[in-house]
Design a protein that fits this description.
Keywords: Cell membrane, Membrane, Transmembrane, Transmembrane helix, Transport. Helix 1 packs across helix 14. The chain is flat. 69% of the residues lie in helices and 0% in strands. The chain has a domain of 205 residues: MetI-like fold, CATH 1.10.3720. With 303 residues, it is mostly helical.
C-alpha cells in the first residue's frame, strides 16, 4: 500500500505570475484606501473652514482698524493687529458686568434643568401612574410651541409681578425644559429596574436613590444636558432684551449689541465684544464635547 508523502508549504511552487498579481491587487487596494482617506480629509477640511469662517471672520475683524473695516477691498487678515481694541471695549462698556450676569444666569439655569429634568424623568420612568404617558406626551408637546408664541404673555405676567430687571426673571422661566426631561428619560430606559427594586426593598427612599445611585450612574446624560443647557442659556437674546433694562442685569449678548453706535470705532469694539461672548461657550463645548456626544447617543440603543 502506497503511503502519500505530505507536502509542506515551503515545498509548494507558486507561479511568479500569481505572486505578481497578488502584489498588484495589494497595491491597488492600498492606493484606493489612501485616496479614500485623502478625499475624506479634504472634504472635512473644507466643511470645517466653512463652519469656522464666521468665528475666524469675527476674530480678524476685531483686530482691524475702523478704516480697514470700511474698506471696499476685502482682506481677511488685518495689516497690523490692534489688540488694544479689546481693552477699549472693556473701557467703553461694562463688559465684565455683562459677562458675570450671563455666567450667573447660565449656571443657575443649567443647575435648575439638571435637577428638574432628572426628577421629572425619574417620575415618568420609575413611578407607576395611570396617566403618566399622557402627561409625558403633553410635556413633549410643549417642544412644538415656538417661544415667540408665549413671550408676550410671559412678559405681561412677570411685569405684573414686578419681576422686571431682576435675576429671577431671567432664570426662573427656564429652570425646566422638555428636551432635558426627554433626554434623561431616554437614558433611564437603559437603567436596570431591578436595581431600583432592590434599593426599595432595602428601605431606600426615592430621593436617596436618585442622588446616591441614579445620578452618579447617569454622568453621560448629566454632561450632555449641562453642556446643552449652558450654551443655550448663554446665547439667549430675545427674553433678556425684553426684561432687562439696566447694566446691572443685562447679559453679555444684549450689552455687546448695544455697543454699536454711529461712529466707526464702536464697530471695532463690538467685534471685540463678540469674541469675548464666544469664548465661554466655545470653552464649555471643547471641554464637554465627548460627554455631549456620548450622552446624546446613550439612550438611542437599548441593551
Amino acid at each position: 500500500m502506497n503511503q502519500e508523502i505530505p507536502i509542506t508549504p515551503d515545498e509548494m511552487i507558486i507561479p511568479q505570475a500569481m505572486i505578481d498579481e497578488q502584489e498588484k491587487l495589494r497595491k491597488r487596494a492600498l492606493l484606493k484606501e489612501r485616496l479614500s482617506k485623502a478625499g475624506l480629509l479634504i472634504i472635512n477640511t473644507l466643511l470645517a473652514l466653512v463652519t469656522l469662517f464666521p468665528l475666524i471672520y469675527a476674530v480678524t475683524m476685531s483686530l482691524k482698524t475702523p478704516g480697514e473695516i470700511y474698506n471696499t477691498e476685502f482682506k481677511l487678515l488685518p495689516e497690523t493687529p490692534q489688540f488694544s481694541n479689546y481693552a477699549d471695549a472693556f473701557r467703553t462698556a461694562p463688559l465684565g458686568r455683562y459677562i458675570w450676569n450671563s455666567f450667573v444666569v447660565a449656571t443657575s439655569i443649567t443647575i435648575g434643568q439638571l435637577i428638574s429634568g432628572s426628577l421629572a424623568a425619574f417620575s415618568f420612568e420609575f413611578l407607576e401612574s395611570r396617566f403618566k404617558e399622557v402627561l409625558f406626551a403633553l410635556v413633549l408637546a410643549t417642544m412644538m410651541v415656538p417661544g415667540e408664541a408665549t413671550i408676550v404673555s410671559n412678559y405681561l405676567q412677570v411685569a405684573q409681578w414686578g419681576w422686571l430687571d431682576t435675576y429671577h426673571v431671567l432664570i426662573i422661566p427656564y429652570l425646566t425644559s422638555a428636551s432635558t426631561i426627554f433626554l434623561f428619560r431616554q437614558f433611564y430606559k437603559n437603567f436596570p429596574f431591578t436595581l431600583y427594586e432592590a434599593a426599595k426593598m432595602d428601605g431606600c427612599s426615592n430621593l436617596r436613590f436618585i442622588f446616591t445611585i441614579l445620578l452618579p450612574l447617569s454622568k453621560p446624560a448629566l454632561g450632555a444636558t449641562a453642556v446643552n443647557a449652558f450654551i443655550n442659556s448663554w446665547n439667549m437674546y430675545m427674553w433678556p432684551l425684553m426684561v432687562s433694562g439696566s447694566d446691572n442685569y443685562r447679559t453679555v449678548q444684549i450689552g455687546v449689541s448695544m455697543m454699536q453706535s454711529v461712529d466707526s470705532q464702536s464697530i471695532v469694539m463690538m467685534f471685540a465684544g463678540v469674541v469675548f461672548c464666544l469664548l465661554p461657550s466655545l470653552l464649555i463645548f471643547l471641554i464637554g464635547r465627548k460627554t455631549l456626544v456620548k450622552g446624546l447617543f446613550s439612550g438611542s440603543v437599548k441593551g
